[in-house]
Design a protein that fits this description.
35% strand, five-stranded antiparallel beta sheet
Length: 150
Amino acid sequence: MRKELPPKSEFRHKLKVKVRFHEVDMLGVLNNAAYISFFEDARLEYIKEAGLIPAGGIFSDGFDFFMVRNEINYRSHAHFDDELIIHTRVSYIRNSSYGFEHLIEKVSTGEIIADGIGVVAQVDKKTGKSHPLSDEFRNKIFNYEGKVHR
């Protein structure tokens, strides 16, 4: 588990969610599978906000983006009806992949209850092989984030 987390102020993108009844388990806490869904929702909203959806719509450019890694560190619990903020950023860009970082904050306390990372790889639909990210894609992330490691 990461000991020192980046400050929330370094995350431009925020998505507010509310824990729904079907997302809690028999103990009354947010089920671990819901965190992956929250990360996925936040990533999708991030790429929309950063202008990364192709003009013809998602999946229209001949490339797929696959999650090749997801990692979650659970620090505390959320319960039914808790409001959470999912803080999301792209932390690095490589040749054909890039990494997301997430913090999940409980609104009522300001506490970070979970953090996570995800790695996305771009794959050519025809060949099924990884494919380099375009300069346009990189520039949109750099313009949105302002700071990304290479």
